Structure formats: structure tokens, C-alpha cells
Structure to design on (322 residues):
């Protein structure tokens, strides 16, 4: 895909990227307003150095030393480290292993109280690949608003779920919601470091005061802006993921993988047969992600990424070792 969008792009290396950022913002607004039938404006959007840069920016002004933050586990461990960097307290709702690590909104809501200043959710979740229904997200955001809590929704893998399930659809309705996305996962541009954020005008105004003015290049802007115009790739890619993941999972026993959604290209497997499942996968030719950095997971878990080209090979290896 990258080669396709690089053709005929002239990189303006002697100019700042201000105008290109504005063009990309307008393209993103046009895209999302069309998909969600919303009325988001330029005052609702900003950029960051990928989702990790956005997380750091948000933590720098939304939480202080001693504050309490509520998240989930397992989830992207880098968020936890950013909270700890601010010397704040990270607490979490743990996915119930007796329910195969499925997120249950009612159980999460029970943990919400006035001591928390921020809530962090991933949708889809990394590393399980499960998706939270937008109605559950809205209920959490609504209750959080009553308790004066800001809710962050990380949608780094968001293109792998129905676009109408995006929390971006709630931004104009709730002033305590922050939603951010990346061009690294679905679009395949991790080196371009493109992250974008939607939130209330007030939060975006403060965010712009403390964030880096030029988080990525003119070239990155041009690439992503062109990519957004090719909406048909959503349906093609999502169908490929669903078909491939369905084929893999039907060849596994349910006790060998955590609750997941067919539309996402990642899922977590588990096995008690080995001291380190990640290393066993590696010995058999599968490059997975070790889960030792995820809270409440250990060496018996590993995250798998779906690839169409190696689908049959993955199935054969997993059937052999699990």
C-alpha cells in the first residue's frame, strides 16, 4: 500500500507543515463527519507523535502527582508507565479469567468512583482483540461525566471495528471524552508516527498549548491524506481479517485463546505446556508478542497477529503445539 501512495508526492522539505496539517485535519473531519453524520469541527481535532505521543501529552496536563487513574488489564502497558511517570496511582479492572478474560461493562462501572481523575479504555483491546460495544462506552462516559472524570478511549486498532462503533461519535455529546487513533496499525504506517485526537474544544485548546507543534512531516501528511480517500480498502481488509481469523480459531480449542472479536487482527493464546509460550512459538517459526509486560498475564500467554499469507502455516503450528 505504501508504494502506491508514495507515487507522485512532492515532499516540500523547505517549508513548515502548518498548511499540510490543516489540509489533513479537514480531510479527517470530512471522513468522520460523513461516516458518523456528525458535525465535528477543526476545534475538535489535533495531532500527536503516534498514540504514544498523544498519551504522554494527555497525561501531562490531565493528571498530577497523587491522582488516581482507572484502567483495565490486560491492556497496552505503555499507558501504565506514563501514569507512573507522572507519579500518579494506576488501578485497574481485571478481566475475569473465569469468563475467559471478557470485558464486562457492568463490572467495570462498579469500580468507578469519585477518587479517579481519569479513566482509560482500549477499543479494540490490546492484546485480546475484543471490542467494547459503543453503548457500553457511552454509559461509562456518561457516569464518568457525573463524577467529573475524563475518559480516554484508545482506538489504535479502531479501523478493525465498525466505524459507527467509534467513540468519536460521542465527542460532541460529552465534554469529558478524549478519543485517539493512529495510522500505524490498519494503514501500515508505523514509521510515519501519525496520531490524531478528537475531544471537546476546551480539552483540545489545552492540548494544543502543551503538545509539539510539528509531530510528523509534510510527507506523512500527504501519504495519510491520500490514503483516507480510498475507503473501499476498509471492507476488503476487514473481510480478509474476519475470514483468516475465523479459520484459525475454528482449528483451536476455546480454552487455548482469550475472548476476542473476529474483526481484529490480534488475539491472545494460552497454554500451560511450556515454561514460555512465546519462545516455543518462536522455535516453531511464529513471531508473536510475549505477554509478560501485561498486568495479570505471564509466560503462558502470547499475542498472535493475523497475516493472510501465513494463515495455513500458523494453523498447522498452533494445532501442533497447543
Amino acid at each position: 500500500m505504501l508504494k502506491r501512495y508514495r507515487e507522485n508526492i512532492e515532499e516540500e522539505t523547505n517549508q513548515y507543515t502548518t498548511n499540510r496539517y490543516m489540509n489533513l485535519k479537514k480531510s479527517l473531519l470530512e471522513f468522520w463527519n460523513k461516516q458518523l453524520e456528525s458535525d465535528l469541527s477543526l476545534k475538535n481535532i489535533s495531532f500527536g507523535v503516534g498514540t504514544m505521543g498523544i498519551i504522554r501529552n494527555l497525561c501531562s496536563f490531565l493528571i498530577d502527582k497523587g491522582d488516581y487513574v482507572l484502567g483495565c488489564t490486560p491492556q497496552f502497558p505503555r499507558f501504565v508507565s506514563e501514569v507512573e511517570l507522572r507519579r500518579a496511582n494506576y488501578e485497574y479492572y481485571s478481566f475475569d479469567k473465569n469468563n475467559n478474560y471478557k470485558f464486562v461493562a457492568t463490572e467495570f462501572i462498579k469500580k468507578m468512583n469519585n477518587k479517579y481523575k481519569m479513566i482509560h479504555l482500549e477499543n479494540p483491546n490490546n492484546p485480546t482483540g475484543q471490542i467494547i460495544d459503543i453503548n457500553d462506552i457511552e454509559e461509562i462516559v456518561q457516569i464518568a461525566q457525573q463524577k467529573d472524570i475524563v475518559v480516554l478511549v484508545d482506538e489504535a486498532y479502531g479501523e478493525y471495528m465498525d466505524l459507527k462503533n467509534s467513540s468519536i461519535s460521542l465527542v460532541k455529546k460529552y465534554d469529558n471524552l478524549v478519543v485517539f487513533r493512529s495510522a500505524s496499525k490498519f494503514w501500515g504506517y508505523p514509521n510515519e508516527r501519525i496520531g490524531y485526537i478528537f475531544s471537546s474544544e476546551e480539552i483540545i485548546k489545552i492540548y494544543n498549548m502543551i503538545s509539539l507543534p510539528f509531530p510528523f512531516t509534510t510527507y506523512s501528511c500527504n501519504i495519510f491524506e491520500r490514503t483516507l480517500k480510498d475507503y473501499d480498502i476498509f471492507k476488503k481488509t476487514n473481510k480478509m481479517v474476519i475470514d483468516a481469523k475465523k479459520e484459525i480459531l475454528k482449528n483451536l480449542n476455546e480454552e487455548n485463546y482469550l475472548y476476542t472479536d473476529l474483526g481484529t487482527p490480534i488475539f491472545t493464546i494460552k497454554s500451560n505446556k511450556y515454561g514460555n509460550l512465546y519462545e516455543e512459538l518462536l522455535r516453531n517459526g511464529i513471531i508473536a508478542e510475549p505477554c509478560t509486560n501485561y498486568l495479570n498475564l505471564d509466560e503462558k500467554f502470547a499475542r498472535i497477529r493475523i497475516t493472510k499469507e501465513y494463515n495455513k502455516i500458523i494453523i498447522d503450528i498452533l494445532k501442533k503445539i497447543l
Observations:
- The longest helix spans residues 18-36.
- The domain at 232-321 is CATH 3.90.1150.10 (Aspartate Aminotransferase, domain 1).
- The chain has eleven helices and ten strands.
